[in-house]
């Protein structure tokens, strides 16, 4: 039985412009071969990087031109905007020609939620990005250069590529020489799975209806309200992951967000429960978050706060809290998927905190109103007669809960520090 002929192995090269230039000589080459047996008819995996330097429009020119335009609009000056003085300013760009084996399989992408999560050994682009990142880490460590490590989210979002075939080289007599050469053919542009266009805003446009919300959150941030600050840390974690591609930072910020949320919520619960700050100060001692979670929250809110087994708290503890410890104390570089899982675990934990708090709304109505508010209760279908009556009959007669709980929290930390 005759075998079908094996098609020539394919090679792909990507033309990847880095987010910032690197001080690498033009034409510098870096090659990495991977140790594995590719099988008959296949090519051993490798990544070859060629660094090419070029000059183009300065990144600063656009921002300076915009500033001058704003100046002229404010001053109603229709004369020379000064942009002609910027013509001589150019910027340096580093483009890496990254070549590797085009060996992706049709089912590789279907097994992963996002293209950037496909392991490097299964995806040519991720393999090249991983090796560029490794080169940059080696460069910045060796030369102590404060440069950005390129990640999927920091590149593109459009990357040109070219496909080539490795064809055997024959002698003049037509015999196989054992060598191969690349014949380049098809080309195109690869669209990455993100929308990080730095020339366009990342958020929604501010509208008149948002002004009251802006005022509220601005005041909470000025007061240092931990029930709001945790959201800011959480947004920073998402920004680190989705826009900056800083996976380790995303993990540490996710855990920071969760710790701010948990300690802020616990402090408010103790305040409403009538505990004196000095009585519970030791509970908030540094390094005892895990103990607080599994012991104090279960006493106040009920539910499953175990750090083992199944559940949102255990999932957060293992996928975020312990991963952060590994990143911070072990120097571990997490994958994008691990960073995404840490963010998801933190969000699920926050939802669980809200669910448990709602279950205890008659015990902690003030905390419920500060954390979830009427809007959140209505969204969950939990706005009931008890909370309605409490809002209209009790809340207006009491001093500011925010001020009182904030004062309690400060006194608690003062007591904690004075006991060290």
Plain-language structure description:
The protein has helices spanning 59-75, 124-143, 211-223, 226-242, 247-272, 277-280, 289-301, 312-330, 336-359, 365-371, 373-379, 385-394, 401-418; strands at residues 10-17, 28-33, 46-57, 90-101, 158-170, 176-191. It has two domains: 10-191, no CATH class; 209-418, no CATH class. Helix 5 crosses helix 7. The protein is α+β, with helices and mostly antiparallel strands and 420 residues long. The model is unreliable at 1-5 (pLDDT under 50). The chain has 13 helices and six strands.
Strand order in the sheet with the most strands: 2-3-4-1-5-6
* Parts with pLDDT < 50 across at least 5 consecutive residues: 1-5
Number of domains: 2
Residues in helices, as a percent range = 40-55%
The biggest beta sheet reads:
6 strands, antiparallel
What's this model, at a glance?
By secondary structure, the chain is of the alpha+beta class. It is built from 13 helices and six strands. It comes from Streptomyces kebangsaanensis.
Characteristic key phrases:
420 residues, alpha+beta, 16% strand, disordered N terminus, Apea-like HEPN domain-containing protein
Itemize the secondary structure elements and their pairings.
Blueprint: E1 10-17, E2 28-33, E3 46-57, H1 59-75, E4 90-101, H2 124-143, E5 158-170, E6 176-191, H3 211-223, H4 226-242, H5 247-272, H6 277-280, H7 289-301, H8 312-330, H9 336-359, H10 365-371, H11 373-379, H12 385-394, H13 401-418
Antiparallel strand pairs: 1-4, 1-5, 2-3, 3-4, 5-6
Helix pairs in contact: 4-5, 4-9, 5-7, 5-8, 5-9, 5-13, 8-9
């Amino acid at each position: 039985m005759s075998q079908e002929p094996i098609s020539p192995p394919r090679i792909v090269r990507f033309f990847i412009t880095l987010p910032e230039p690197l001080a690498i000589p033009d034409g510098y080459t870096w090659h990495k071969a991977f140790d594995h047996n590719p099988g008959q008819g296949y090519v051993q995996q490798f990544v070859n990087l060629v660094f090419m330097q070029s000059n183009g429009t300065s990144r600063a020119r656009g921002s300076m031109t915009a500033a001058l335009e704003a100046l002229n609009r404010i001053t109603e000056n229709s004369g020379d905007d000064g942009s002609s003085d910027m013509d001589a300013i150019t910027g340096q760009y580093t483009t890496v020609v990254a070549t590797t084996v085009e060996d992706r399989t049709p089912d590789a992408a279907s097994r992963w939620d996002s293209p950037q999560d496909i392991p490097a050994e299964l995806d040519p682009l991720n393999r090249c990005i991983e090796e560029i990142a490794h080169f940059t880490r080696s460069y910045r460590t060796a030369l102590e250069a404060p440069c950005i490590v390129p990640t999927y989210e920091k590149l593109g979002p459009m990357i040109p590529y070219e496909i080539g075939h490795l064809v055997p080289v024959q002698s003049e007599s037509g015999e196989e020489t054992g060598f191969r050469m690349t014949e380049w053919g098809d080309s195109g542009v690869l669209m990455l799975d993100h929308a990080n266009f730095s020339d366009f805003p990342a958020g929604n446009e501010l509208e008149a209806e948002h002004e009251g919300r802006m005022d509220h959150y601005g005041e909470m941030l000025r007061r240092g309200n931990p029930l709001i600050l945790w959201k800011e840390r959480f947004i920073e974690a998402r920004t680190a992951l989705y826009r900056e591609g800083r996976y380790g930072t995303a993990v540490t910020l996710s855990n920071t967000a969760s710790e701010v949320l948990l300690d802020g919520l616990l402090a408010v619960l103790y305040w409403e429960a009538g505990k004196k700050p000095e009585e519970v100060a030791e509970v908030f001692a540094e390094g005892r978050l895990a103990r607080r979670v599994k012991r104090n929250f279960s006493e106040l809110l009920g539910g499953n706060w175990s750090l083992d087994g199944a559940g949102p708290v255990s999932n957060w503890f293992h996928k975020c809290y312990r991963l952060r410890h590994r990143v911070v104390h072990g120097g571990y570089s997490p994958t994008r998927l691990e960073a995404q899982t840490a963010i998801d675990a933190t969000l699920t934990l926050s939802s669980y905190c809200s669910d448990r708090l709602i279950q205890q709304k008659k015990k902690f109505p003030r905390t419920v109103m500060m954390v979830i508010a009427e809007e959140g209760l209505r969204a969950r279908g939990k706005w009931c007669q008890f909370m309605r009556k409490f809002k209209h009959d009790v809340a207006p007669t009491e001093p500011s809960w925010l001020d009182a709980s904030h004062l309690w929290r400060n006194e608690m930390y003062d007591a904690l520090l004075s006991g060290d």
